[in-house]
């Protein structure tokens, strides 16, 4: 097994592109077989996980290591949780959680330094933005405050002038063509003007939406609900995003969704979403 992993890494290493993935696993214990399949079958250099739904001491670190990845994680029992995995290397933790709300104990942000594939390093953050439903109410207010706190941290990253990627489940549908049905999602917190405005402010500060850049016409989904045959009807929407700092955006090669993984048995309701950088 170890020899196979070394051979795979050698072959993948011949490709100069770096693949960074965001993947909401919707419970790492329940989806571990699917995650390990994805790591074994794909060529991801960095994988940002969300919604682990596992405490720190129950994170399957040994399984991840056996798959050839180093990991840093920020868990929470039954809810939330984020992680950063790096193929053939150990991510170096930089920031755990967002400043600005000391009483917030949700595990939703983890920022790491990872190899950039060119002998240097870059910054990658795995984030899980609050859903915000029902609205109006305290959950929606928390979502908007969290967006503001994320923007504050993102501004600090821009000031460092380093290649950086903010990858995760943003729980924001940025455009009408990012959903199968505007009418069905009209009252949802994911598509409210305030949610979209918070997302747009990030872009206006200098971050690039990788998937939108490569697919400007929209109609590319990253999430399909388990209910009402959403997967079978292709009734999805786009809420998983990879935002690139200017120095990362300069290296953008491609971005997409590994949609087929959503159709596997006992899969997450999200599909792995990725960006390739030179």
TrEMBL record:
Which residues are recorded as binding Mg(2+)?
Answer: 24, 51, 169, 171, 269-270
Catalytic residue positions = 128, 169, 270
Site annotation Interaction with DNA substrate: residues: 270
Q: Which residues form a coiled coil?
A: none
Q: Which InterPro entries match?
A: AP_endonuc_1, AP_endonuclease_F1_BS, Endo/exonu/phosph_ase_sf, Endo/exonuclease/phosphatase, ExoIII-like
> Which residues bear the site annotation Transition state stabilizer?
171
Annotated cofactor note: Probably binds two magnesium or manganese ions per subunit.
What UniProt keywords apply to this chain's record, in alphabetical order?
Hydrolase, Magnesium, Manganese, Metal-binding
Q: Which domain of life is it from?
A: Bacteria
- List cofactor names only: Mg(2+); Mn(2+)
Which N-terminal stretch is annotated as signal sequence? none
Which biological process terms from the Gene Ontology are attached to this UniProt entry? DNA repair
Q: Name one GO molecular function term.
A: metal ion binding
Q: Where is the Endonuclease/exonuclease/phosphatase domain?
A: 21-270
What residues correspond to the site Important for catalytic activity? 240
Q: Which family does it belong to?
A: Belongs to the DNA repair enzymes AP/ExoA family.
What name does UniProt use for this protein?
Answer: Exodeoxyribonuclease-3
Q: Which organism is it from?
A: Sphingomonas gellani
Q: What are the top taxonomic ranks of the organism?
A: Bacteria, Pseudomonadati, Pseudomonadota, Alphaproteobacteria, Sphingomonadales
């Amino acid at each position: 097994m170890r020899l196979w992993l070394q051979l795979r890494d050698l072959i993948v290493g011949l490709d100069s592109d770096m693949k960074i993935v965001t993947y909401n696993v919707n419970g790492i214990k329940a989806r571990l077989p699917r995650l390990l399949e994805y790591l074994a079958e794909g060529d991801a250099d960095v994988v940002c996980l969300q919604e682990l739904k596992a405490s720190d001491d129950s994170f399957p670190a040994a399984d991840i290591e056996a798959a050839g990845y180093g990991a840093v994680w920020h868990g929470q029992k039954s809810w939330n949780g984020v992680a950063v995995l790096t193929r053939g290397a150990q991510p170096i933790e930089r920031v755990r959680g967002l400043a600005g709300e000391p009483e917030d104990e949700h595990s939703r942000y983890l920022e790491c330094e990872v190899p950039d594939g060119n002998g240097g390093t870059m910054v990658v953050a795995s984030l899980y933005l609050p859903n915000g439903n029902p609205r109006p109410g305290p959950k929606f207010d928390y979502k908007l405050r969290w967006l503001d706190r994320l923007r504050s941290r993102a501004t600090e990253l821009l000031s460092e002038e380093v290649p950086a990627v903010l990858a995760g489940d943003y729980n924001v549908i940025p455009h009408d063509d990012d959903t199968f049905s505007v009418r069905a999602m009209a009252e949802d917190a994911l598509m409210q003007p305030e949610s979209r405005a918070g997302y747009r402010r990030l872009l206006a500060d200098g971050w690039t939406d990788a998937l939108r850049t490569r697919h400007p016409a929209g109609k590319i989904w990253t999430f399909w609900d388990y209910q009402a045959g959403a997967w079978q009807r292709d009734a999805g929407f786009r809420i998983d995003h990879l935002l690139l700092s200017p120095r990362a955006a300069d290296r953008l090669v491609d971005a997409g969704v590994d949609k087929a993984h959503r159709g596997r048995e006992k899969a997450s309701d999200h599909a792995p979403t990725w960006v390739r950088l030179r």
